[in-house]
Design goal:
Number of strands: 0
Structural class: mainly alpha
Radius of gyration: 14 Å
Shape: globular
Largest sheet: none
Order of helices and strands: HHHHHHH
Number of helices: 7
C-alpha cells in the first residue's frame, strides 16, 4: 500500500520526486515546472504530474525561505547543505502558475473531490500558494 494523504509530500509520487530532487536539484524543478508552463489552457495535469508539481513548488518555496511546517527530512537536509540559496524569479512564477493549474485543471483535484477530503487537501495546497505569494518579486 502506498502513501496517500492530503499533504503535498504525503504520497509516493511526491516522495519519489523529492528523492530525485536531492540528486538533481533545480534541474528537476525546471523540468517539472517548465512542462506545466508550456501546457495549453485546455490541458489537464494527470494525478502524478500534479503531485510532482506540488513537490517542486514546495521546494521552490522552501529554498526561498518559506518551507512547509512539516518539512521532510530529505528537503531539510538539502536546504542545510545548499544554504544560502538564490531562487530565480522565473522558478517562483512557474511554481505559482503550476500550483494554480493543479487547483483548477488536474486529475489530482478530481480525485480529492471524490474522496470527501477535498477541503483538507485544498487547505494544504492553498497554504503552499500563500507561501509562494510571500516570496518577494525581484
Amino acid at each position: 500500500m502506498g502513501a496517500w494523504g492530503p499533504g503535498n509530500f504525503e504520497n509516493d509520487v511526491a516522495l519519489d520526486w523529492l528523492y530525485d530532487f536531492g540528486e538533481n536539484d533545480f534541474r528537476l524543478i525546471d523540468r517539472t515546472l517548465a512542462g506545466v508552463a508550456a501546457m495549453v489552457e485546455a490541458d489537464e495535469l494527470d494525478a502524478d504530474e500534479a503531485s510532482e508539481v506540488l513537490a517542486a513548488a514546495e521546494c521552490v518555496a522552501a529554498a526561498a525561505g518559506f518551507p512547509p511546517d512539516n518539512t521532510p527530512q530529505e528537503l531539510a537536509d538539502w536546504l542545510a547543505e545548499n544554504s544560502p540559496i538564490q531562487v530565480k524569479p522565473d522558478y517562483v512564477e512557474m511554481a505559482r502558475q503550476a500550483v494554480a493549474r493543479v487547483l483548477t485543471r488536474s486529475e489530482l483535484r478530481e480525485l480529492w473531490l471524490e474522496s470527501g477530503e477535498y477541503g483538507v487537501w485544498e487547505t494544504a495546497v492553498r497554504n503552499l500558494q500563500s507561501r509562494l505569494n510571500q516570496i518577494p518579486q525581484k
